[in-house]
């Protein structure tokens, strides 16, 4: 059984069991801290996602024969036009990748042509398409929740990825950029805690 992650579970492996327990605790802490009332199955889905991407090969795809890598938009177009079973698999992978990358590597998009908004839009669209493609599927409510609250769950993964918060001024500037681009509630609260987000700045963002 692969629990919808695409990778078989290894319940007898102490390393994987340890990792899963760690992710379970981190997800619980992040959801509670961010005051996000996730469904139990969504909670489990996030744990599965983190466990899946522990293996870097699951995140980074090798380039095609011509040396070119498909863009997220091209992958979305390919997914929505695929046959039913393939479409669901491609959309799920696209949504999962966008969510994970936005949460763990969102700051790396600064000053790049493609920013975090692009991943948020693609990921939300992929999960939304999954939710309506088979409404009777047991995971359909989860995909709908991930789609409608995509940025909330990006904040959850960002919270988990932060081993230590603001170390220097550069970190604060990256955080402010993230707030301006996405309206992240986590970024907003952390900026307020550090005295960087005043009423005038919040009004300008709105």
Model description:
- The chain has helices at 14-33, 40-52, 72-80, 84-105, 116-133, 140-148, 150-161, 169-182, 185-193, 199-205.
- The longest helix is centred in the middle third of the chain and has 22 residues, at 84-105.
- It has a domain at 167-206.
- The protein contains 10 helices and no strands.
Low-confidence stretches: 1-17
How can the largest sheet be summarized? none
> Can you give the mean pLDDT?
78
Order of helices and strands: HHHHHHHHHH
State the helix count: 10
Structural class: mainly alpha
- Structural shape: globular
How much helix is in the residues?
55-70%
Rg from Cα: 18 Å
- End-to-end span in angstroms? 46 Å
The amount of beta strand, in percent, is under 5%
Number of strands: 0
Entry keywords:
206 residues; mainly alpha; 10 helices; disordered N terminus
Task: Kindly summarize this structure in a few lines.
The chain is mainly alpha-helical and 206 residues long. 65% of the residues lie in helices and 0% in strands.
List the helices and strands and how they pair.
Elements: H1 14-33, H2 40-52, H3 72-80, H4 84-105, H5 116-133, H6 140-148, H7 150-161, H8 169-182, H9 185-193, H10 199-205
Helix pairs in contact: 1-2, 1-7, 3-4, 3-5, 4-5, 4-7, 5-6, 8-9
